[in-house]
Amino acid sequence: MDIKSLKSDFPIFKNIPSLVYLDSTATSLKPKSVIDKEIEYYEKYSANVFRGVYKISEKATEEYEETRKIIADFINAEKTDEIIFTRSTTESINLVAYSLGRKIINQGDDIVTSIMEHHSNFVPWQQLALENGATFKVIDITDDGFLDLDFAMLDKIITKKTKILALTYISNVLGTINPIKKIAKAVKSINPKVIVVVDAAQAVPHMNVNVQDLGCDFLTFSSHKMLGPTGVGVLWGRYELLAEMFPFNYGGEMIQEVYIDKTIFKSPPHKFEAGTPHISGVIALKEAINYLKRIGMDHVRAHEKKILHYAIDSLETEYGKKIKIIGPRTLENRAGIVAFTFAGYHSHDIAQVLDEEGVCIRAGHHCAMPLHNRLGVNASARASFYIYNTNYDVDMIVNGLKKVIKILG
To answer: Where is the Aminotransferase class V domain (predicted)?
Structure first.
């Protein structure tokens, strides 16, 4: 990829030429075409969707529904109606936990997740288990950052009591790419009724994702992590499951008919989209997807692997045992995320010093406290890479850490 040309598509680099942005795991930057698409809605057809018979409302609805079709194609959903718009990955997971989980989970059932999960794919299931009297099982990790799964012994974890398995596709701390397809197939062979929920917030923006090939039942991701606007999430689910679930919210546009004594709801996806949505954000999301498609997801992944290799090699060559990089060492099993601890300095201090050099990284537990407790660290610094990053950005981290030593002693 021609990164110099690509970066010119992002207005933030024109406004802050010295910016070194290494926090795309939290939220990505936005190209001008996405920003323009959102503005287009407000300037040319700013009306509510579905509810108007006048031209600009019909135009808004057409643009909004076109995004649903583009997403379905992007992740290879069987039906467009399997795509539900939410506010975030977090809301998407909570929707499944509320609308399906509270329907199927009873006392004595098992819910399984892992220690590497983001809080959004941990706490909803933990709370559901506590409320309904289910057993909450947490899969551990190995010392090198992989799920501690012996497939020959998987029936010790997954049993006839297991109702839900919720796993991240890519850890937002370790960078581990979990073998979701292999896991889903193995789990379904033990208990075909297990519902497999995948948090793909860190996967869909960075690699090819095919929901039919994965063999999962639900998959979630966010617009803002893949060049799109904030405030838009996506839930994909198998249609037969969505059709059986009760609504998450009640209100406008998810209604078929209302009577004094009963209400008939619309079919999916609209059954789950009560109220006025983030119309401009959904419309602009399709431009973000089109932007990524023009680059090609294989190229996105290849670019990140090159920077990841350079980053790990540069940091360890320069600092040796002073730096501890968390997660797998094999590039094939790792996304463009480098979380680390450095010479006993607190991650917030590291981030603050790097910020003075124009370098943006994340510091803290990254909404993964159980994982950090398992690793024996209270916080970590995290650099994450995307299509607009280069080796120069890595060099800025390396040099910035020298300043950390100089300032903090």
So the answer is: 20-396
**Which two tokens mark 379?**
């916080």
Q: Which amino acid is at 52?
A: G
Pick from 166, 162, 282, 296: nearest CA to 220: 166
Which tokens in the block code for residue 337? 């995320």
- Which pairs count as long-range contacts for 73-78, CB under 8 Å and 24+ apart, including other chains? 74/204, 74/289, 74/293, 75/204, 75/209, 75/210, 75/211, 75/219, 75/236, 76/210, 76/211, 76/212, 76/213, 77/211, 77/212, 77/236, 78/212, 78/239
pLDDT in tens, 341-364: 999 999 999 999 999 999 999 999
Catalytic residues: 367
- Joined tokens for residue 86: 């939410």
> How many angstroms separate the CA atoms of 232 and 292, rounded?
17
The answer to whether residues 112 and 221 belong to one domain is: yes
Question: Taking every pair of C-alpha atoms in the chain, what is the biggest distance, in angstroms?
Answer: 72
The answer on 381 and 361 residing in a single domain is yes
Q: Domain range holding 398? A: 3-23+297-408
Q: pLDDT digit string (tens) for 144-159?
A: 999 999 999 999 999 9
